[in-house]
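> run fold Flagellar biosynthetic protein FliP
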Amino acid sequence: MYEKIRILFVICILTFIFATPVYATETGNNKTADTQTEENADTADNSDVDLNGNIGPFEFNLDTGEKAGGLTSTLQILVVLTLISLAPSIIIMVTSFTRILIVLHFVRSALGTQTTPPNQILIGLALFLTLFIMSPVFTQINNEAIKPLSNGEITQEQAITSGIAPLREFMLKQVKPKDLKLFMDIAEIGTVDSVDKIPTTVIIPAFIISELRIAFIIGFVIYIPFIVIDMVVASTLMSMGMMMLPPTTISMPFKILLFILADGWGLIIGELVKTFY
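> ok
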């Protein structure tokens, strides 16, 4: 049995060895002159030939589409994607969003309601209030920068300069002079003739510090009436000998009642929006 298998295996090997050259030879002889001519033509078209007739490497061309206007479209897409990625930081840092959100958190903490309203509600309210307050600035940016750039009336550099000008004007109205001077001293910028010469990189951190200061001042004012209620309730419980009862459990309903009677949301949001005008 094993001898038959061994003989069959040897026969297969010999057949493969002797049959391969014959197949290769027959295949090579079947090539026509036309096929060889076409191959030589393709080789000549896809290669670089120097003066001596030597075939060099393939030529690599990078077509940016500048003639067809593709390069401008590519750069516009890049700018749009960059703005989209930086949009959250821009909305938070250079608009009224920071002050509004901090004040709303102070209101919730003063009421002692823990997670009511939830963070999503406060952030959404702060976002829509920001759109309401910043709508004139956004409209100006759209009219002076975005539309002219889309129509090809100005260059991208001019669009950036025109677009950032309304934001600079808004921030300079809200920033405190001492905060602006602080960052000018850190940046070693001396006295300037006009605010137009102050770099935007100095205005933005000064504006953020000013927003934090104003938000904390408003939060302190909001806390005062609620602290009075906590003190009255705590004194009453101590005089009644109910020391084991947490004062916040009793004072929270009274604080909510006071907030409702005073129309707290309308009062706080109305006065908060007026601080930007």
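The two ends are 104 Å apart (CA to CA).
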